[in-house]
Amino acid sequence: TSSHWLVIALVFLLHDSSHALINRGMLPLLLLLIPSFLLADSQHTPQNPWGEYAADCLADKPSLWDEKRLETKWYGINLDLEPHDMWRELATDYGERMATAIGVVKTMVDSFGGEGAWDAVLLLLQGSENSLTEPYRSEIKALADLTGIQVEQLTLLNLFYELSKACTSIVAMDHNGKVFHARNQDFGFLFVWDIEIHTWELTRTLKDLVVQYEFQRDGKLLFKAVTFAGHLGILTAVRPGQFSMSMNSRFGSSLETMTRFFAQGLDENQQFAVYACREMLTNCATFEEAKEYIESVELLAGAYFIMGSTKGGMVNTRAWNGTDNEKMIDVKQTNGWYVLQTNYDWNEPDIFLDDRTIPGNKCMQQLGRKRVTREGIFQVLSSKPNLN
Q1: How many Cβ atoms are within 10 Å of 127's Cβ, its own excluded?
Q2: Phi and psi at residue 345, to the nearest 5°
Q3: How far is it, in rounded angstroms, from Cα 262 to Cα 124?
Q4: ω before 135 within 30° of 0 (cis)?
Q5: Tell me, what's the pLDDT at 127?
Q6: Would the pTM count as exceeding 0.85?
Q7: In this structure, which of 95, 238, 313, 361 has its CB flanked by the most CB atoms within 10 Å?
Q8: Cα 315–Cα 318–Cα 320 angle in degrees, nearest 5
Q9: How far apart are CA 367 and CA 373, in angstroms?
Q10: How do 270-271 and 220-228 pair as beta strands?
Q11: pLDDT tens, 18-34?
């Protein structure tokens, strides 16, 4: 049964033979084994081994788009203010929900690590906020003051994006040259399953933290962003009239640099990926400037930077210390009117247990360039398995 497979998976994770794989940065792969074992007993046929979890493109299905679901509130973040004043309204509105999300992380840590694991994690993080670059060091301390949440816990919430997230980002161009940039955010996958409502508990609590910002300086709008309350960095944003960006994790790319961070802090000129995004959006006025910055900034962890411009878009595949690959939209090529990025290098196959790139591309091709709209791309990002 699926419960037997889960026991086997957990035993494997705890067995000494798995430690070498963990030390080689393979923990994400080991964790991905658990849902695959759980799925092993689902209803299936030889042609459809994943059962109800198999790929299911919704490009030709009735539209799921609902204009009423769009969030209308935007929080103004004035970069000219002191940190306490910058984040006061956000902390008042979201402080309790941020504490709830951190509580789920604690449950996860205690479940896997046993009694005392949570305290050990916080001890490991003690003083780590002082290793952050400014203005983030001052801002995270201000947010702790405003919410009453331990600064170590807020640091962990900010670190989570460097450690765990699974996403799909798309930049696509319609026949008129209009560019659309979309992404989903499967953040929290594998962290505490809620048996009552059938979802990952951290995913549910983080959904309650989704917030929209308008960053301003000198009385002018710099960029608009969607992220999670409590995060000081940026995950998804647009600099109006210039460029858009979203960032996806690059699985297995952060173990060495994260270990070094816990041991000695950030290296000189090194930056969290989410903070690098904010720096880019704050200081780069054009797509060309943003592209140059993101190709070379030194990061704490590798990542994929998906960027759109008024003329197209690209995916930049980053190692912590430089660019490994870059893929541009090229309408002269077959299916060259879009780029789609999950969490694996575009020129390498996804691992078997988490193949989202092939289904995602097939669904985009089924949609076709003629149907590139908000509604059309929303259908693609609502399709399994790209929507975990």
Answers
A1: 12
A2: -55, 135
A3: 7
A4: yes
A5: 87
A6: no
A7: 313
A8: 160
A9: 10
A10: unpaired
A11: 444 444 344 433 443 44
